């Protein structure tokens, strides 16, 4: 539950297990080998049109950054149209990952392997994404008849990232029928589904060392043609120093349409 229920009613009915010693490959130098079809994600270069402090301003994000992301995605993927659903800025607190027990000004990095984070109201299941496509196009748009993908674009606001970088799960090593578990996130007046991931020795994980603010992860979350979404999470980089800057990032959730 994404709220405090009354009485002693539990907020969750699942148990999360911590796994240490997970190997994560560095893709630096091999970025061009990644693709949606093979891995579920790839890296995309973005011109830096905004300063670091500009990402504190909603007006600049919506007028400059979001249109840039939509246009770059459209060109890179050969899409007919890209609809931006929402975005999220994260800035790790100085005590992260230790909780202060108080509300944060900014969302914190996610440390749970997932497909679509808890901080979104966008349902990552195929059925949920289909409903969102219909809700966004109630005007009778032909987009509802096209092939579509739910795609997230994630990049650092401040680079290079050393502390708590993002790691991606190679979807070619994920068995969607056995490794993924849909779970309900219950809000006041709304319920959405996202996916958690069971550990498997077959899984392969990747990250980009010293990721710069011009380097964006583009990850698949859901696909009307049946491709598996990309598990991902922040992870503690053993080579990072406590003196390194905390992680600051922005992620943009989009719906991408293809005229096929």
UniProtKB/TrEMBL annotation:
Q: Which organism is it from?
A: Thyridium curvatum
Mind telling me which NCBIfam families this protein's record contains? CmcJ_NvfI_EfuI
Question: Per its UniProt record, what InterPro entries does this chain match?
Answer: AsaB-like (IPR044053)
One MF annotation (Gene Ontology) recorded for this entry:
oxidoreductase activity
Q: Which family does it belong to?
A: Belongs to the asaB hydroxylase/desaturase family.
Please give the name of this protein: Methyltransferase
Q: Recall the taxonomic lineage recorded for the source organism.
A: Eukaryota, Fungi, Dikarya, Ascomycota, Pezizomycotina
């Amino acid at each position: 539950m994404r709220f405090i229920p009354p009485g002693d009613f539990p907020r969750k009915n699942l148990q999360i297990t911590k796994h240490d010693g997970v190997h994560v490959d560095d893709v630096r130098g091999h970025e061009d080998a990644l693709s949606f079809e093979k891995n579920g994600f790839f890296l995309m270069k973005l011109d830096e049109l905004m300063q670091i402090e500009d990402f504190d301003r909603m007006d600049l994000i919506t007028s400059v950054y979001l249109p840039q992301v939509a246009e770059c995605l459209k060109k890179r993927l050969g899409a007919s149209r890209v609809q931006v659903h929402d975005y999220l800025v994260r800035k790790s607190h100085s005590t992260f990952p230790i909780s202060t027990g108080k509300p944060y000004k900014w969302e914190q990095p996610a440390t749970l392997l997932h497909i679509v984070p808890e901080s979104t109201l966008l349902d990552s299941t195929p059925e949920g994404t289909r409903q969102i496509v219909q809700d966004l196009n109630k005007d009778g748009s032909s987009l509802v008849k096209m092939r579509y993908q739910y795609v997230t674009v994630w990049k650092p606001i401040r680079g290079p990232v050393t502390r708590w970088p993002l790691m991606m799960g190679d979807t070619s090593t994920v068995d969607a029928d056995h490794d993924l578990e849909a779970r309900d996130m219950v809000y006041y007046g709304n319920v959405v589904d996202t996916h958690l991931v069971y550990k498997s020795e077959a899984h392969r994980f990747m990250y980009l060392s010293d990721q710069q603010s011009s380097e964006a992860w583009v990850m698949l979350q859901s696909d009307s043609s049946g491709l598996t979404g990309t598990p991902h999470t922040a992870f503690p980089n053993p080579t990072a120093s406590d003196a390194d800057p905390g992680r600051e990032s922005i992620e943009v959730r989009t719906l991408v349409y293809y005229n096929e």
